[in-house]
Amino acid sequence: MLVEALHCNVRFVGEAMGALSSGPRTHDQLLELARDDFDLQWDTAAPVRDRTGWLAVTGMVDLFDRQVHLTETGRRVLAAMELGKPDPDETDTVVQFGPTPKAIARLVEQLDQTGLKERADGANLYIPGVAANGGVLDALQVLTEAAIPSISDADFVRSVQSTFPKAQTVATARTAKDTLKALGLIQRTSSESWTATPAALAWVESGEPLDLARIVHASIAFFGEVLGELDQTLRPTTGTITERSSLYLPNRGKPLSRSAVNTRLNLLDACGLVTRLSQTTYRTTALGRAFKESLPGFQPDNSVGYALSDGATENHHRDSPTGINHQTSFLGSHIAAELEDAARDSANPKRLEKAAVVALGYLGMPGQHVGGPGAVDGHVRFGVGTDSRILAIEAKTSATGPVRGQPLFGLSEHRARVGAHVHLLIGPGFERRMLKEADDDPAIAVIDTGLLAEVVRHQEQTPLTLIQLAPLVDPALKAAQRGDALRRYWEAQDMRSRLEYALVDILNAEAQDPLEEGGWLDLTSIRRELRTREYRVDEGTVVEALDFLASSRIGVLQRLEQRYRCTASVHTAGQRIRALGSQWVAATELHRQARSGDEVPVHS
């Protein structure tokens, strides 16, 4: 039934009917209920009106006397529904814990600041099975029990494949095994076999989710610490949590992926430590707060990467037409956050116009804000020199969801005034008819602010060239196609980084082998070793990566005809690559000072 489908997929549909079962309410009263009892951060009653409109069309409610009334049909349907409601935010609730098994207590006792800092990053976590309703706990228990008393690598792979229908490849099964190791649940007994750790045995025996949470907190960084990040007055999103993760990973130097953070959140949810409020927001439960206080946690340096003040955006606007100045530390994260906030600020549409220009400028498309009646909201330049082209900007805000009912006529005249042939229609999603009209126009590229913010955030850690960013502004692509095209480039960049790491690691191992003279490997042997590590890469890509690592700017490999050997550790390779970024920042500052007339230091 349609209403049941809506209730299962959209928050505050069946719950609104439940509220009406005790008597009619106004839209404002339903809005207050949605805010107070369901943590829905709605500024107006428009989302409530959308839902009561759906319910009225399906006969569940009747609207009269400025109130919403539940019909008899609605009551019958409501009786068959399972309603959800977040746990109350009981900050004063006293929580008492049972005794912790000795093997697990010892892990927690060893967590001083050095121990916390030495935990694994947990950057590539995968738990097969269903994430919801505690399914992750069941999956971890099944996999841990498979290693009691021990299990071989091959049997573990077969166990995962036979138990979890969506984990059929060998690579996926191995990732699940690596996840159990990272979470502190299994350990090697030989080069080919595994067994459950003493702490994992204690958890399997107790069956207590908090025992598992303690093991995980002792094993990987940014697990229990997530509870503190969520327990803020201004509720963070998963995107914000992902950005903040870098502060808790001193050995990594960059944020976790969104999937790695979501895996942590799913596990915390299954253990009852957080409550999921929406697709991107969670809240720490009373149990979660007490649990966090019972554990030692890593204390991050909040001054790192967050030196920009709340007013940083206005300062950027004064520095240059693109809004980008020489302060680059975590600038992309701030630009992305401003873009997302501005998209919902319907009372101040110019804020989004400026934020869009700043975001595109950060991606290498310099431009300026214009605004005003009969004019484009802004324009940017894509490309350099004679091959460049002007892109006009039309920014649309909406505080309550997709933009709806906004006219698109007159855009061609606006484009002509700035010499543009393409318009970028930017906003927080667009209702179906408006989106179709824009997507069908060969001169309009529709860009969701959520995607644009994602691209800006990625540009800090996985930067794309302007050519690779072309799908973002290509009017030939539908709005729904842009994200997939860009994600393919991000995946390729991530794969290239992993390939470079693997090459240095392979050649390091060869150099340390006492039976190998000089540590040299030819291209065929390198590719054979890559295949054993599940890398299926063509020869040209391997040679390109090797030549990059052997270049004078990196210099961690040596090349002799078609043979290579390593001259530095993996750690040193990472330092060299990071140093290039620092050198570019310093060079940019020198050029900026020279252009502004500041004194530039001269070194003899």
TrEMBL record:
Superkingdom of origin: Bacteria
Protein's name in the database: Restriction endonuclease type IV Mrr domain-containing protein
